[in-house]
Amino acid sequence: MKFSELLEVSRRANQPLHEVVLVQQMLEDGSDPSETRAKVRFLLRTMLKIVESNYGKCQQALVGLCGENAHLLSKHEPRFVGEFIHTAMVAALSVAEANASMRRIVACPTAGSCGVMHGVVYALTKVTHIEEERLVDGLIVAGAIGDVVARVASVSGAKSGCQAEIGTAAAVAGGMMVYVLTRDGEMSCHAAAICLKSLMGLVCDPVGGFVEVPCVKRNATAVAVAVSAAEMALSGIKSVIPFDEVVEAMAKVGRSLPEELRETGLGGIAATRTAQRLLQGFMNRGDTNEAIEQRNNSER
Question: Mind listing the pLDDT tens digit for each residue in 60-71?
Fold first, then answer.
């Protein structure tokens, strides 16, 4: 179902969008709306616990290309951003580095882009003090946004580049932020569209194939994109191109990306001289094969 169709049902039935999404899910797979809501609440609480246990800590990433970013940013006194975005960025880095360290995360929409939603959810809780049930409503709508992208395009970097992972993560985060404040589905849709347009064409180029560089830092910058898009949407700015059409365009862009720019580690940042030097260093390390095996096992 297109997102515009969900919005139309919401308008005609005079029902909040999150309720329409729950009913649509029930019609598709028979799931009980109350049970679905309970599952979303469980994921929300799990995400918050994950952030709490990793926030601002130094971590031991699999191949050592990251692990201190969250700690450094947590100790830094922001010069240009406010408390919300700083908290969200630290949380995003913390969870992305936890993922790179083989720790538990909620893939939202993927492991490599997990930090974005964790960061936004954490900041909404700790800084904005949004009540839990409104966050659950927002996550339900965010899930619908992500579902449309997954069906029409992809949320896989291997298939459509990092625009599919980080781009989608920013879109669902931006849409969620707007919805928890306004319960306005159309406004949320504009935020999601602005995010996708801002990150369209982003390539997937992990150094050595590991989700450390540039993946971890992209989680934090994607938070900034999500917040910017949410603020624009809240101000009344609209995406000229409808969300569903933006997703269709994203799908076409993804199909046009060469293989080297789709998670193969053969292009983009992964192909730079420094990246190749680092990769050679990995190969010379005695624990490289073990690290690769751990990564492969985690992806199965």
Answer: 998 899 999 999
